[in-house]
């Protein structure tokens, strides 16, 4: 697929149902005129605990573009983070300043300032300790209103209760302050159960505030998956009250479920979590809000290949020291794979990853491969200190490096002196016996009688550590004969480490493949970060990211996005599929890996908040129209005033589209099927339309939103624009099956040559991005002994008895698809699945330095 097609796909994501998201990003002008405010409430505002911190932080820039100064983040006061992340100061807005002063008068310590991140948002932080004396009174109030009791011993729930009441007080005072000035529209967006108390109290007290609740992972679901539970096959069968009670989280579960029921709009981050919410919270999400990233932060343009080579060299330096005495493999034929995340052994798929590494080790040795795979496991856990053997290895490598550098310098000086005298130096004159003695000392000093360590640190209670026990069970001990080497790094990566001095982003760029076979992963930022950094990755169809890519990217494996089926296959089959993916990846040539990284990096635009932010916008519009049906009329009125403002320049465009310019990737139809601009519509004859047709066009299963009302048209012209968009969508051109920008066929070797069979097929999906890539036939390979027959069985939905209908925000489809009954064929061309590969000169320029 060419770059232009991916851009078309990104535009299709952010321009749906008549909404032009880019037109909504006006730096808060519309929000200021309408007096529209957004209060984002999260326990992780300027307080890093987990993944929600990344969601809020990365989403701030695009939200600020929509709301401007009318966007405020509410969170708890954590002194350690505030010192480094918040610029404390009094708010410049009177309404915030007056509200905070009133809170302080009531005895609540409130800190205001600006979060030191891109967008520089205003934050209001509540000191939980200053209000803890009200805990018993607020527990009684909460029980009287919601009939939910909080036990005394649960400190986290107590903190959540205090924080929730502080937010509840703030919202009430804030609404009163804003309404004194003019009519207002206030939206409060709550994240996770820790903020649920504030939402419940705000709704039960009837405040004039649109409420949104987003669950990034259900509380009970996370607890159930942490045990040995067949979670997804038993979703309809769980006794929810009993399961929550057995785990002593019944009160937390009640808060989360009540919040989902009390909110005006309930959202979750992925389709798989939406199914989970339907069964565990008894509430279907109104909108799916996939998590994005600030892609511009990771963008390296054409430099990302060079960054891979640069950071890979740092990994080489670490590996040389770690495997001293056993360093008998070629680094040019070494692949670095990794997995990372919270230390949740089964939820994050560490158990399956280790088992698949053992199988991969057997497959590589059986096939006689000379490729070495070094697997990193980055899972922070309790440690005492660095492993002495790990530090000794780096010290020996440094000693070797310094000795060789000194000898090299001396040889250069002698060579210069002898040549300057007009003589050709002899070998004995160049390399002296003293130099050989120094080299022998280094060689003898680097010998070891033990195997290289599998862990870089001394783990506390390593006898019961799940990862170490799994490595021992699979006998992955870094022996000389092993083609798979493992390194468990039980600490967050940082550039100041004396062992592996790399930040996480640098480490990811230096690796060849990220592996995340999660069993429970509502979204999955780790594979998303790999994608925007141009690193191929493996995830599962039980992760939100995997579901999103399966839905929106046709033949995702051709772009380095491999999806392991953990939902419709047994654990053994899934593990074999993962091992096969990694084995096939190891067969790729250097040039093929370069091409694959280029393809992977192209998908980064689909994960940008400028694209995915439209789903949060949609949720906010639905919430406002549900409590303020007149809000849509206010939008239309504002749009008409804007269009009639003489100071606004009118931009006209030719009604005939400009001829398409052919880029270096082929001729792609750039018709985006957008409605014509206002200047074109005004010149057309528009027939009056019936009001009922508008309602039908904009009325799914929930109240009519203010979707396209930012267009500067009156109702009649706006209807014409929607009709034009719908007509254009039906005639949207279908992409041809061409990978014009790639190499026709890449030689892997005589033993791995295959005949590529191209089957052109273009599938039209309603409202679904289709990249229309070719599918390849079976490949002949020298390692056919490891292959199994392709599996073409059809998936079924999670339950044949209970259908889950996803809201039309992402897709109105059930989770279905195709899998393979055995495993993928093990040819390297099967990994790329490219039927139109053509040699290009620009790949040769980077081939020398990439691997």
UniProtKB/TrEMBL annotation:
<protein>
    <recommendedName>
        <fullName>Glycogen [starch] synthase</fullName>
        <ecNumber>2.4.1.11</ecNumber>
    </recommendedName>
</protein>
<dbReference type="InterPro" id="IPR008631">
    <property type="entry name" value="Glycogen_synth"/>
</dbReference>
<keyword id="KW-0808">Transferase</keyword>
<feature type="compositionally biased region" description="Polar residues">
    <location>
        <begin position="750"/>
        <end position="762"/>
    </location>
</feature>
<comment type="function">
    <text>Transfers the glycosyl residue from UDP-Glc to the non-reducing end of alpha-1,4-glucan.</text>
</comment>
<keyword id="KW-0320">Glycogen biosynthesis</keyword>
<feature type="compositionally biased region" description="Low complexity">
    <location>
        <begin position="680"/>
        <end position="694"/>
    </location>
</feature>
<comment type="similarity">
    <text>Belongs to the glycosyltransferase 3 family.</text>
</comment>
<dbReference type="GO" id="GO:0005978">
    <property type="term" value="P:glycogen biosynthetic process"/>
</dbReference>
<dbReference type="GO" id="GO:0005737">
    <property type="term" value="C:cytoplasm"/>
</dbReference>
<feature type="compositionally biased region" description="Basic and acidic residues">
    <location>
        <begin position="780"/>
        <end position="805"/>
    </location>
</feature>
<feature type="compositionally biased region" description="Polar residues">
    <location>
        <begin position="831"/>
        <end position="844"/>
    </location>
</feature>
<feature type="region of interest" description="Disordered">
    <location>
        <begin position="748"/>
        <end position="851"/>
    </location>
</feature>
<dbReference type="GO" id="GO:0004373">
    <property type="term" value="F:alpha-1,4-glucan glucosyltransferase (UDP-glucose donor) activity"/>
</dbReference>
<feature type="compositionally biased region" description="Low complexity">
    <location>
        <begin position="813"/>
        <end position="827"/>
    </location>
</feature>
<feature type="compositionally biased region" description="Polar residues">
    <location>
        <begin position="640"/>
        <end position="657"/>
    </location>
</feature>
<feature type="region of interest" description="Disordered">
    <location>
        <begin position="639"/>
        <end position="695"/>
    </location>
</feature>
<keyword id="KW-0328">Glycosyltransferase</keyword>
<dbReference type="Pfam" id="PF05693">
    <property type="entry name" value="Glycogen_syn"/>
</dbReference>
<comment type="pathway">
    <text>Glycan biosynthesis; glycogen biosynthesis.</text>
</comment>
């Amino acid at each position: 697929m060419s770059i232009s097609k991916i851009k078309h796909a990104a535009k299709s994501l952010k321009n749906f149902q008549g909404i032009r998201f880019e037109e909504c990003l006006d730096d808060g002008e519309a929000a200021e005129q309408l007096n529209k405010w957004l209060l984002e409430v999260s326990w992780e505002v300027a307080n890093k605990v987990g993944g929600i911190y990344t969601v809020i932080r990365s989403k701030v820039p695009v939200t600020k573009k929509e709301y401007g100064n009318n966007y405020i983040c509410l969170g708890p006061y954590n002194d350690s983070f505030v010192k480094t992340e918040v610029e404390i100061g009094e708010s410049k807005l009177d309404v915030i300043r007056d509200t905070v002063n009133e809170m302080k008068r009531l005895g609540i310590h409130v800190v205001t300032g600006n979060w030191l991140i891109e967008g520089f948002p205003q934050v209001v932080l509540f000191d939980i300790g200053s209000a803890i004396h009200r805990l018993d009174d607020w527990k009684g109030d909460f029980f009287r209103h919601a009939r939910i009791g909080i036990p005394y011993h649960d400190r986290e729930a107590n903190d959540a209760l205090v924080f929730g009441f502080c937010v509840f007080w703030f919202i009430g005072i804030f609404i009163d302050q804003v309404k004194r000035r003019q009519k207002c529209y206030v939206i409060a967006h709550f994240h996770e159960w820790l903020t649920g108390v504030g939402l419940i109290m705000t709704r039960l007290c009837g405040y004039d505030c649109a409420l949104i609740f987003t669950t990034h992972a259900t509380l009970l679901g996370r607890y159930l998956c942490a045990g040995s539970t067949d979670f997804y096959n038993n979703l309809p069968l769980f006794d929810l009250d009993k399961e929550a009670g057995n785990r002593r989280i019944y009160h937390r579960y009640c808060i989360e479920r009540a919040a989902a029921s009390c909110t005006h709009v309930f959202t979750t981050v992925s389709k798989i979590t939406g199914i989970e919410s339907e069964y565990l919270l008894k509430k279907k999400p109104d909108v799916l809000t996939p998590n994005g990233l600030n892609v511009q932060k990771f963008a390296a343009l054409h430099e990302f290949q060079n960054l891979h080579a640069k950071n890979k060299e740092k990994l080489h330096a670490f590996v040389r020291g770690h495997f001293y005495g056993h360093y008998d493999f070629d680094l040019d034929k070494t692949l670095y794979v990794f997995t990372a995340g919270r230390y949740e052994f089964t939820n994050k798929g560490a158990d399956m990853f280790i088992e698949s590494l053992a199988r991969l080790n057997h497959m590589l040795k059986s096939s006689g491969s000379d490729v070495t795979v070094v697997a990193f496991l980055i899972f922070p856990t309790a440690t005492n200190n660095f492993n002495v053997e790990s530090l000794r290895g780096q010290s020996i490598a440094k000693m070797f490096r310094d000795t060789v550098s000194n000898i090299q310098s001396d040889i250069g000086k002698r060579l210069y002196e002898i040549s300057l005298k007009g003589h050709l130096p002899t070998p004995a004159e160049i390399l002296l016996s003293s130099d050989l003695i120094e080299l022998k000392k280094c060689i003898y000093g680097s010998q070891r009688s033990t195997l290289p360590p599998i862990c870089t640190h001394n783990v506390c209670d390593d006898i019961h550590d799940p990862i170490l026990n799994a490595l021992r069970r699979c006998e992955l001990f870094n022996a000389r004969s092993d083609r798979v080497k493992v390194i468990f790094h039980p600490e967050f990566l940082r550039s100041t480490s004396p062992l592996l001095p790399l930040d996480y982003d640098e480490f990811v760029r230096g690796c060849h493949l990220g592996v995340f076979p999660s069993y429970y992963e509502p979204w999955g930022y780790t594979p998303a970060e790999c994608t925007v950094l141009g690193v191929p990755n493996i995830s599962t169809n039980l992760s939100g990211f995997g579901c999103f890519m399966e839905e929106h990217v046709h033949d995702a494996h051709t772009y380095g996005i491999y999806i392991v089926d953990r939902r419709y296959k047994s654990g053994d089959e899934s593990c074999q599929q993962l091992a096969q993916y990694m084995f096939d990846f190891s067969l790729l040539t250097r040039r093929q890996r370069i091409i694959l990284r280029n393809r992977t990096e192209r998908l980064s635009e689909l994960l940008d908040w400028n694209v995915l932010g439209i789903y949060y916008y949609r949720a906010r519009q639905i919430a406002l129209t549900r409590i303020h049906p007149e809000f849509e009329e206010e939008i239309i009125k504002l749009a008409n005033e804007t269009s009639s403002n003489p100071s606004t320049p009118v931009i006209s465009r030719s009604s005939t589209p400009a001829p398409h310019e052919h880029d270096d990737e082929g001729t792609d139809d750039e018709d985006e099927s957008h409605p014509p601009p206002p200047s074109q519509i005004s010149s057309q004859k528009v027939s009056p339309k019936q009001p009922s047709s508008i309602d039908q066009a904009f009325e799914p299963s929930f109240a009519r939103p203010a979707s396209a009302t930012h267009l500067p048209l009156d109702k009649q012209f706006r209807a014409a624009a929607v009709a034009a968009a719908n007509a254009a969508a039906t005639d949207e051109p279908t992409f041809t099956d061409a990978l014009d920008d790639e190499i026709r066929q890449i030689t892997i070797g005589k033993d791995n040559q295959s005949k590529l069979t191209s089957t052109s097929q273009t599938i039209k999906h309603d409202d679904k991005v289709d990249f229309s890539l070719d599918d390849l036939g079976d490949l002949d390979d020298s390692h056919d002994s490891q292959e199994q027959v392709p599996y073409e069985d059809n998936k079924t939905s999670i339950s044949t008895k209970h259908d889950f209908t996803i809201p039309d925000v992402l897709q109105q489809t059930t989770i279905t698809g195709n899998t393979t009954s055995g495993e993928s064929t093990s040819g390297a061309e099967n990994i790329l699945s490219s039927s139109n590969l053509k040699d290009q000169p620009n790949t040769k320029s980077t081939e020398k330095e990439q691997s």
